[in-house]
Amino acid sequence: MIFWRVKPLDQILENAEKKSLKRQLGPVQLTLLGIGAIIGTGIFVLTAEAAQKAGPGMMVAFVIAAIVCALAALAYAELASMVPVSGSAYTYTYAVLGEALAWIVGWALILEYAVAAGAVAVGWSGYVNGLLISADMALPEFLRTGPFDGGGFNLLAFVVSLVITGLLVVGTSKSAWVNAVLVTIKIVALCAFVYVAVPAAQSPNFEPFLPTGWGSPMGGVGVLGAAASIFFAYVGFDAVSTAAEETKNPNRNIPIGLIGSLGVCTIFYLLVGYGAVGADGAQPVFDSAGKLLEPGSDALSKACEGSNALVCSKEPLAHVLRMLGFEKLGNLIGMAASLALPSVILMMIYGQTRIFFVMSRDGLLPASFSKVHPKFHTPHIITIVTGIAVSLFAAMFPVGILADVSNSGTLFAFVMVAVGVLILRKTQPDRPRPFRTPMAWVICPLAILGCILLFVNLSMKTLIVFAVWAVIGLVFYYVYGKHHSHLARSDQSGGAVAQPASTR
């Protein structure tokens, strides 16, 4: 039954107070955390992939993805202000749709956070390896990429993930301020790109505007296929909600952080996309038979040998500036990306650990995962476990379709959040809502439809990976989580099960 083992909102809030994290983040820090999580691999790297899927039509893809994210953000803001605890979509689903679906959402969020963290670490290592090669300090080829990407062990991706894990163990406020510096670097870099590229835009570079059309379900190409991929460039705003338990005045500050960070990033993305297409062109590459080559494929790599096309670049923004004659500025943009991308890894690992923390507190994962360090006031055990897993993952696998795989889990979670808002509007209409989604019965259904539209326009391979991942998650739930759930033990004993005291 879909509503089996629903955890009351009052109980969720009560349990959060029994084993809580220190409240230390304000609205500015939250907005910066959101921007830090959003601006990253998506805009610095995936612009080229979007261009290969949709050509100049990727401009429309940016808009579509932004609209879907904005709709989802409004739903997130209402639930995050009502339930200011860690756990994001997992916690909200538990309170509305029940334990089984909550577990699936929590499991899907691993795709959004852990997979994304590994992907960004790999993207970062590519930038740094390029800088090292240009400085005649290249690592051995065996250590530049993982075994599934022609190498042996991606050393830089492995190291940066471990360093960020250590930073997160030391403390949230410290990592937040380091993140603020990295966010500033990213914003300065994007401003420099916009300043140079937008005035250089030429109308012929936008023709033909839709060389691959609108796309088709499970095709992964066209404008909708590009929107489904470029959605990765916006993912991260919901990570703000995972910081709810560490936020001062969360009922006010969470909505500010969510909508503020998304709004800032959307403006940047539209300007950057226009500048990239207008200044350098963005026509996709086809084979001799006129078939569109798949982004990231060996066929595209071979077709791109010796080409200066935007779709062939691994660092598209720096590439555009170099093509315009700004070689030094292009190199500085590449350096800025190398310095700033770790902030995205930081927020992805941060979000994942907070979701695991709450799942552990609910009994669905081992209790040791929710222990809080007595000095640093952080969930150190699960942070270390997650960081090691991400480090190994980044060291072994290429970026490939990881962005799309991450998107599949994210879109599923967004649908559950929008559904939850509507159900609570009916079942608990009088519960205080510091932030109310405007026109909820219009916004939330549109958010659901938008997420489904992008989901079905992911590639068939991505959808298969998501389905297999969901089945594995259900097996874990029925083997462990179902029997160790505190809510289940409460049902069996006919009363509430005492939650472990804080280990601070």
Would you state the CATH class?
Answer: Mainly Alpha
Instruction: Please compute the radius of gyration using only Cα atoms.
Output: 22 Å
Q: What is the first-to-last residue Cα distance?
A: 38 Å
- What string gives the helices and strands in order? HHHHHHHHHHHHHHHHHHHH
Number of helices: 20
Low-confidence stretches: 496-504
In terms of DSSP E residues, the strand content is under 5%
Tell me, briefly, the overall form: globular
Full CATH superfamily name: Amino acid/polyamine transporter I
Number of strands: 0
* Coarse structural class: mainly alpha
CATH architecture: Up-down Bundle
Tally of domains: 1
Mean pLDDT over the full residue set: 80
The portion of residues assigned to helices is 55-70%
The profile of the biggest β sheet is: none
What would you say this structure looks like, in words?
The structure is a single chain. The chain has helices at residues 9-18, 27-38, 41-44, 46-54, 58-82, 88-96, 99-134, 155-170, 172-197, 222-230, 250-280, 298-303, 316-323, 327-340, 342-361, 380-396, 402-427, 440-456, 460-484, 486-493. Helix 7 (99-134) crosses helix 16 (380-396). The longest helix has 36 residues, at 99-134. The chain has one domain: Amino acid/polyamine transporter I, CATH 1.20.1740. The protein has 504 residues and is an all-alpha fold. Keywords: Membrane, Transmembrane, Transmembrane helix, Transport. The chain crosses the membrane at residues 28-46, 58-77, 89-110, 117-139, 151-170, 177-198, 218-237, 258-277, 332-351, 381-403, 409-427, 439-456, 462-480. This is Amino acid permease. It is a multi-pass membrane protein.
